[in-house]
């Protein structure tokens, strides 16, 4: 298919679309996350937190992560963090599994609410559909996952652009009025900072797509582009839902609330189908990273992870994650994600920006020394 198969696309855009696919369901697909970490700090406070803090941190962390991954050939999180923090790599694995279970719980909670409330589908049937789709993708492996993520990203962009356009047409005066008040509440910097950090737990799910990158320039540009690709739909979404500020702050699934207010049932159906696709993407990305980590460990011993084991691992992890969905999506996002942010800051952000940058520079210096006459 088209441009997605070209080396240029795979180097500069594929990691961004994979990042978007993995981060969106747990990061802003329902809209609850944008309300919790941005909009509750005021309309302008939310925009500033998103564009200045989150976008900058996403671009910076991914640029350094991609270059570190490239130069050390670390395409799974076990290898990556062994290179970064040595024998303490397992601390990130603990954080990653906490994030995985939290995100799968949010995915399960959102999927259950969507299917039950809008399509009349029993929760258990929805779970089985999710299990089947994620199990199939993880069974097929990286090639199909890359194609699915790239293709679905186009759908995501079209839907979020339509979301904003319809919102402006229907509620333009309300959006303008809420933005013109320029409300900024204390905490917008911290909100953007925490959102950026917990979201970066998805990077291990992106590492497999970085194998196509060959140079430092490609790694840095790809990381910056990835941050922009990841945030742009969220920005469109945030602007659209300002029309319903402040009543939207208490909604469990703000996206569905906003679209319901628009009065277009067809678009509501389309959005929820696309959202379900992103839930499948997120679950697939997180679990595929676990499979890649297991595969890496087995390769050290001269073995391979059997294909039939991949969907079984997916089913086990999804079952555990979905069982946590009973806590409710608002509590999971407000408390679980917030606490996770500080763990990521200590174990990932600080080492990456200090030890990681140093090791990249030293490795590059050694490579130059070997190639010089």
**Total count of helical runs of at least 4 residues:** 14
CATH class: Mainly Alpha
Silhouette: globular
- Mean of the pLDDT scores? 82
Number of strands: 0
Distance between the termini: 44 Å
In terms of DSSP E residues, the strand content is under 5%
Key descriptive features of the protein:
373 residues; mainly alpha; Amino acid/polyamine transporter I; 14 helices
Could you characterize what this model shows?
The protein has a single domain (about 5-370), classed as Up-down Bundle (Amino acid/polyamine transporter I), CATH 1.20.1740. It has helices spanning about 5-10, 15-25, 30-35, 45-70, 75-85, 90-120, 125-140, 140-180, 190-200, 215-240, 255-260, 265-300, 310-325, 330-370. It is mainly α and about 375 residues long. The protein is globular. Helix 6 runs antiparallel to helix 12 (about 265-300), helix 6 (about 90-120) crosses helix 13 and helix 8 (about 140-180) crosses helix 12. About 80% of the residues lie in helices and about 0% in strands.
Brief sketch in words of this structure:
This protein is mostly helical and 373 residues long. The protein is 79% helix and 0% strand.
List the helices and strands and how they pair.
Layout: H1 7-12, H2 14-27, H3 32-37, H4 43-72, H5 77-85, H6 89-119, H7 123-140, H8 142-180, H9 188-199, H10 216-241, H11 254-262, H12 265-300, H13 309-323, H14 329-371
Helix pairs in contact: 2-8, 2-10, 2-12, 4-9, 4-10, 4-14, 5-6, 6-7, 6-12, 6-13, 6-14, 7-12, 7-13, 8-10, 8-12, 9-14, 12-13
């Amino acid at each position: 298919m088209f441009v997605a198969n070209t080396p240029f696309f795979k180097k500069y855009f594929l990691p961004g679309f994979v990042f978007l696919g993995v981060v969106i369901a747990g990061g802003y697909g329902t809209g609850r996350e944008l309300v919790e970490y941005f909009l509750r700090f005021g309309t302008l406070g939310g925009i500033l937190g998103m564009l200045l803090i989150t976008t900058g941190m996403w671009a910076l962390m991914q640029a350094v992560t991609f270059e570190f991954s490239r130069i050390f050939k670390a395409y799974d999180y076990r290898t990556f963090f062994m290179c970064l923090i040595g024998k303490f790599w397992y601390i990130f694995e603990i954080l990653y599994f906490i994030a995985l279970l939290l995100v799968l719980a949010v995915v399960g909670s959102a999927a259950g609410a969507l299917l039950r409330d809008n399509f009349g589908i029993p929760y258990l049937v929805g779970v089985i559909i999710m299990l089947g789709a994620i199990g199939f993708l993880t069974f097929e492996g990286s090639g199909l996952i890359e194609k699915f993520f790239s293709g679905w990203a186009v759908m995501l962009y079209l839907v979020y652009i339509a979301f904003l356009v319809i919102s402006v047409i229907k509620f333009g005066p309300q959006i303008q009025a809420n933005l013109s008040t320029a409300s900024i509440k204390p905490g917008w910097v911290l909100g953007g900072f925490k959102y950026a950090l917990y979201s970066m737990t998805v990077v291990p799910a992106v590492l497999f797509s970085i194998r196509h990158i060959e140079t430092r320039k490609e790694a840095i540009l790809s990381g910056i582009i990835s941050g922009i690709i990841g945030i742009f739909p969220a920005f469109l979404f945030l602007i659209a839902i300002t029309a319903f500020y402040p009543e939207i702050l208490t909604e469990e699934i703000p996206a569905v609330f906003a679209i319901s207010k628009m009065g277009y049932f067809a678009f509501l159906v389309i959005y929820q189908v696309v959202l379900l696709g992103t839930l499948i993407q997120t679950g697939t990305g997180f679990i595929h990273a676990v499979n890649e980590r297991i595969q890496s460990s087995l390769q050290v011993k001269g073995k391979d992870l059997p294909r039939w084991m991949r969907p079984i691992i997916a089913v086990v992890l999804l079952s555990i994650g979905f069982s946590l969905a009973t806590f409710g999506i608002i509590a999971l996002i407000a408390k679980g994600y917030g606490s996770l942010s500080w763990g990521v800051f200590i174990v990932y952000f600080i080492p990456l920006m200090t030890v990681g940058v140093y090791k990249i520079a030293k490795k590059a210096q050694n490579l130059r020394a070997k190639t010089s006459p």
